[in-house]
Design brief:
Elements (H helix, E strand, L loop, with lengths): L4 H17 L7 H11 L5 H17 L21 H32 L15 H8 L3 H14 L3
Length: about 160
């Protein structure tokens, strides 16, 4: 029912000890640690110490009182959106992904043709060497042509 059976075993041991001793009586940390080391020899000691410490602080903070607490159930039913909401969410996400991808592509091209080696990407007739830009950015020629046209229209190049 739970993911961390060792943690819950130590926690139930502490609860049983609190029930035997009575509430508001602190349990020595060493007692919890000794129990963990004796029962769970296959685990690393540092991991067991961390679990013991977390449990000890939990009960110390609550003045050694056992609360009615249910361990989390991992077999819960997930609340889902209806089909229309889910479809809209997916469409919005796809639009966002495409917008980000377009911005990244534009920045790649713009940085390349306005950067330190900008003259390497200009031909003798003062047009851009699309093949070389495509090779250096790992983008297709049609993509480069499209973005160069948009950048020219916007006046960025």
């Amino acid at each position: 029912m739970t993911k961390d059976k060792i943690f819950w075993a130590i926690k139930f041991y502490v609860e049983d000890t609190i029930k035997q001793q009575g509430e508001h009586i602190p349990i020595p940390y060493q007692t919890i640690e000794e129990f963990a080391f004796a029962k769970f020899t296959e685990k690393e000691k540092s991991t067991l110490r961390a679990k013991c410490r977390a449990i000890w602080y939990w009960y110390d903070k609550r003045n050694w009182v056992i609360e009615n607490y249910e361990p989390p159930r991992w077999n819960y039913q997930r609340k889902t959106k209806d089909d229309k909401e889910l479809l809209m969410t997916r469409i919005e996400n796809i639009k966002k992904i495409h917008k980000n991808k377009k911005e990244i592509t534009r920045k790649k091209i713009l940085n390349l043709i306005t950067g330190m080696f900008k003259n390497d990407y200009i031909k003798k007739d003062l047009s851009y060497n699309v093949s070389r830009i495509a090779k250096d950015t790992n983008l297709s020629r049609p993509t480069i042509i499209k973005h160069l046209k948009e950048l020219k229209e916007e006046g960025l190049i």
